[in-house]
Amino acid sequence: MKPRSYSISWQGLFTLLMYAFMYIPIGILGLYSFNESRYGAVWKGFSLKWYGRLFQDERLFAALGDSLKIALCAVGVSAVIGTLMAVGLAKYRFPGQSLYRGVSYLPLIVPDIAIAVSTLVFLASVAIPLSIWTAIAAHMVFCLAYIAVVVSSRLQGLDPNLEEAALDLGATPTQALVQVLLPQLAPAILSGCLLAFVLSMDDLLISSFTAGGANPLPLEIFSRVRTGVKPDINALSVVLILASGLIAAAAEYLRGKSEKT
User: Fold this and answer.
1) Fold of 58-260
2) Range 187-210 burial, b when 16+ CB lie within 10 A, else e
3) Tag placement on the chain: N or C end, fewer CB within 10 Å?
């Protein structure tokens, strides 16, 4: 019996190299978050002390509070407006609909730096002082687009006869929307909200241009790594990666579940 021979194509090799390029640095970061030494390049043994210091850092928790306020407010408002926008674009026809759709989804492809600069210029031109509320308004720009895209994709797979049947049975358009359409859209709405929440928590550029006196977590991290990456920042990065991964996995699960139903 001839032994099995294994071969790998250049496409497979390229894929492996790309995954290694993306994930080996994350693995090294996670490893050095357990380093006893405060200097990242010198390994002096395993320790959990940096995680202990991380959870005792009041300044980091204050920055986390600012990030949560911005993300929750921006996502909450965007969930309502984005869902209504997706439903309106899917069910109604009006002049300029294609243009409106393109402009609504434009933040998905426009670089963050362009959104940040244009928002800052607009706020300065109308003399609105920078604060946590201007950061929330700026984050709503891209949160709205992401939620609307996810909800729109779900709308395309729904059976329109269900809503029409509810109208034929005496339901008002509002009742049909609330009692028939929204329950079917709920997994997609929640999935879009989770995705937008992760993106908002992770944003640095737009926050740095619009936050004013607020100090979101990405800005706090950036201010600390200017002088070098400390082990407590490594520990914080590991916690954020795990939390973001769990939220992204939940969003993908809900999106897949909504497409199957």
Assistant:
1) MetI-like fold (1.10.3720)
2) bbbbbbbbbbbbbbbebeebbebb
3) N
